[in-house]
Amino acid sequence: MTVRIASGAGFWGDYPDATGRLLAHGEFDYLQLEYLAEVTMGILARLQESGRPGYATDFVDIVAEEYVDALLDREITVVTNAGGVAPTACAERVQELAADRGRDPTVATVTGEEVTAQLDELRADPGLPNIETGAAFPETVEPQVAVAYAGAFPIAEALDRGADIVITGRVADPALTLGPLLHEFEWQADDYDRLAAGTVAGHLIECGTQVTGGNFLGDWRDLSFANLGYPIAEVEPSGAFTVTKPPDTGGAVTTETVSEQLVYEIGDPSAYLTPDVTADFTSVRLEDLGDDAVRVEGVTGTAPPEDYKATVHYPNGFKLAGELLYSRPDALEKARRAASILEDRIETLGLDVDETHADYIGHDGAHGPAAPDREPYNEIMLRFAARGPSRDDLRRLGMEFAPLSMAGPPSVTGLTDGGGRRRRRSSTRGRHSSRGTRSSPR
Amino acid sequence: MSDDTDEEVLLADIAHGRSGDKGNRLNIGVVADDSAAYERLREQLTAAFVARQFDGLVNGSVTRYELPNINALNFLCEDALDGGGQHSLRYDTQGKTYAAALLECRLPHERTHD
Lengths: 442, 114
Prior knowledge:
The complex is a heterodimer of chains A (442) and B (114). Chain A is α+β, with helices and mostly antiparallel strands and 442 residues long. Chain A has 13 helices and 20 strands. Chain B is built from four helices and six strands, in the order E-H-E-E-H-H-E-E-H-E.
């Protein structure tokens, strides 16, 4: 007996028809949908503050609305972290939409991971050291939302109790896969090797098409990116599993694509930490079975860490970025000159700016000082960014971009704005949340 | 191509990889095409080499981890993303393109034949 778990969303903003692609070509028992990047929780908290939903509306608008009938008819159980900072509200909306179609699925929520209210207490004892630097939690910070990463067992419990759809807030991403496996195979909390295997399965499929050819840095030219297939993990009771994708879809599943995803966003590969297990990625054995199937076995694990990881989102000033396009000849020189004019104007106007940053897109927009010199460039987009404590001062800086189309270096374009006060090519972001990663005891 | 042990080699010709973020940390996973290429990477693609490539971009230390099971190395770079996430002023706030930059590096002549 194998349990087949498909991944139909690797992030909030993934293809809206991903679930449809899976349903059209794939056979699977569970559908996991992952929406919460690190930055997403802060964004959702801000949306909720302004009266908008604090959950991933993509899930509700697209998956719950368009595909709920097909999923229920095929008895495919959905496990998703779409709940964001409002899993209960998300579940209520899903239930309403299902009811409109005359359906009555059992929708479960997993909550309790939000620790905003306990933050002061945790700060005092045992403290909230920064996971990267070890620094103590700063006193001056006023958190918007704080969430711990929950594990897979609450998801399994929801499934044990008959859920058709499980909606969580922040959970360790692989828990969306491990939860169903705990439920199906009745793995125990100290079955560390199998928990590690389920965690590796989750890690490999949670980013959707990144394991089926998306972002592949090997021979990507050979891949068909049209109708890229979303991954399915076919897991055996032993924990061994096969990563594959539906037939007649684009992309590829090979040891190369799987290896690239295995090393994606990890630290020490011998100790991949989740609340459920410490998985050893150096124990993973891959075998290419051909036909877009890779078998994964041999995974070992040990006890999980003592502490939970949490992210704390707090307002930390404002950010602005604006763009100007300079053409040849001497595009880079013109763009650099424009950036220095902006720097001078910050000084002259006495704007309260903590830091500025210039990207010369076409030259170093992606790699900054690591970019090699390849002049001459046909054109360079100057992207000038700044951050600081004052929204008004950054807005004033935003008004410094348009004048450069008439009063700066020549052959500049991209400012086709109608002349309103707020210039289209620059925008001030609202209070941005800077995340700090903390750990707190379990 | 990993047989050309006496030649300077473009990393992209013997390996592929992927990079991403965890907070203000960057990781770059480099997967060698075969075990010979992996041995060459183990020898030459050191943490110090990677730190040099990203001088000015990665401000903290670089730690190298080995995954011999898939012929891969993982580089964990501290203080690498200008604060990361929404704090960063960079265009590539999450370091998604940094693996491609590393793969454009050239490894020096192998000196094991001397």
